Structure formats: C-alpha cells, structure tokens
Amino acid sequence: MRLTVFIITLFFTVSAFSKELTVSCAAGALDLIKEIGKRYEKETGEKITFNFSSSGKLAKQIEAGAPVDVLISASPFWSSYLTKKGLLLKESVKPIMETELVVIAPKDSNLKSLKEAETIAVGNSFAPVGKYALESLKSLKLYEKLKEKLLFAPNVRELTLWVISGNADAGIVYYSTYLKFKDKLRLIEVLPKKSHEPVFFTAGCTKKNPKECKEFERFILKQPESLFRKFGFEKVKWSSPQK
Q1: Residue 131 pLDDT > 60, yes or no?
Q2: Which pTM does this prediction carry?
Q3: At what angle do helices 76-84 and 55-63 cross, to 10 degrees?
Q4: Do 111 and 181 fall within a single domain?
Q5: How confident is the model at residue 9 (pLDDT cuts 50, 70, 90)?
Q6: What radius of gyration do the chain's Cα atoms show?
Q7: Count of structural domains within the chain
Q8: Are residues 130 and 47 in the same domain?
C-alpha cells in the first residue's frame, strides 16, 4: 500500500513541476480523449499528461492532493463529490458526452441473454459503469436472480478483458467500450435507457490551472460530432443542464 501511494505521489509530483496539462480521465473515454488530446497538442503546442482509471479512484487521488488540472468523470456523482469538497470549480463542471449501457459476451459465445450466463462482469463501487449496471438490473427486476453471478471489476476496460478472455460469460459495459473491442465481442442487447440514470461523462476543473483547463474543455466541445460518434458517444451541447 505504501509503495502504491509513493508511486502515485511521484507521478503527480513530476507533473506538478512541469507546464503540462494533467488530465485525469475515466477509462471508458480513453480512446476519444486521447485522440482529442493529440489534436489539442498539435493545435496549441501544449503537452498533455493523461491518467486513466475508474472515476472513483481518480476522484480519491484528487482528494488526496494529486495535482490534476482536468477531471473527466464517467458519472456526475464523482464530479459533484469533489465540487462539494471545494476541489472542483462548480461553474466548470458540465456534461460533455453521453453513451449507452450494453450487454456483451465473447465473440464465439452462444449466449442470448444475461439469464443464461453463469458469471457476469460488472464494475465495482468506484467504477460508474458498475453503478449504472446495478441500477439497470434492479429496475429490470433481474438483480435478485443474478446477484450471485456478479464479478466486480476495478474499471470498464478490465471488465471487458474478462469477457474477451472468457473469465466471465457476459458483461455490462458502455457502448463506447464495446465499439473499441467489437471484433472480439458479441453485442447481446442495449439496456433500456429508462432502467438507469443517463450515462453522462462530465468535465471539471480544479483550482490548480483553471484557465488552461477551461480552454481544454472548450476544445473538446469544438470537435465534430462525427468524432464523438466514431468512439460511441453523443456530444452534449455546452448549454445542456447537468443531470
């Protein structure tokens, strides 16, 4: 545990003394945000350092003092959590994109529904994908029937790898994550939107570097909708209310 804390501290200490923009981003948005980051670096000449993990872990790192400039969370919950603690600027926290929740299985699987699965991978309490999954299962009256089959992963990408490798018969992930690995997965179903809260990814700025952070937020939403759709997202208009 002490070694882990030291490594995290060392990583962020290096970033703190550089002129780089440090972006902590939910693993579910990794590919889209990395692509936008490349475009931002090319256009501005500024360097971006990325840190990808589950939203909960990223929020806890910021709470522990990690010198992060931008947080991109897979759920408004963690952005709100940090805002209430005064660690994110309230006026900077806004939804930037939305995706759907889907059920996946390995490519060669004959699975037709979650009820047929012996093991189902979902996110743990730090990963919003897990929160959305449990909401949906409970809303669809499936949780009590399936709860003994659930395997809890630390983030959505780890969850997906469990399914690809066959260590889980099925999984509940973001549609954007399915698209990334669709050559190795089968899409079983899209879960009804009404069965869970909207899957909004939000961006927010810490007090460390708010001017540059807000510029990066604006840059994200300047990108064409086609780019968001390529990675399985729908862009949320800047004026849309946070839910």
Answers
A1: yes
A2: 0.85
A3: 10
A4: yes
A5: low
A6: 18
A7: 2
A8: no
